[in-house]
Amino acid sequence: MKESGRKKGKRLRLITVRTAPGDRTMGLINAGGTVIACALGRSGISAQKREGDGATPLASMAVLSGYLRGDREKRKSGGIALRITRAGDGWCDAPNDANYNRPVRLPCPASCEAMWRDDRLYDICLVLDWNIRSRRRNRGSAIFFHLARPDFSPTEGCIAIQPAVMRRLLPLLRRGTEIRVLG
To answer: Nearest 10 degrees: CA dihedral of 93, 98, 104, 108?
Structure first.
């Protein structure tokens, strides 16, 4: 990824995401003038995001924190706190649970997503501020910026990019970088 005229070490404050022409599950990210392909939710982008609908929310979301699979990825310096993922890490997606859209330890009695995955999607996984600071039941959970499958198949509502691109982008991001999904 070229830094296109930016001073070395400068952070990205805004990343925009749009639907790619002809496929609502594919997107184009603009990160400081560099255009990057991404996978979107299986239902495309929606302004009416609901739990389980498979849509990527039409919203502006800040990067809050992240997870890193330490046995597969090296820690990168940057402005985002990356927590080393452990086998018992999960994320609650049960709207009626007190831990809805929060990290939890597995096993958990409520429905949860495992953060330690064999498919490598969460080897680098950034938590986006969708329905976190102002949580509402059924508005959607676990909206992340993570690694894409090799075939760019759709996500369950997240934004996903190639691993090599994420590794180059990660040092330019910081807590508070805005991911603006435009549709």
So the answer is: -80
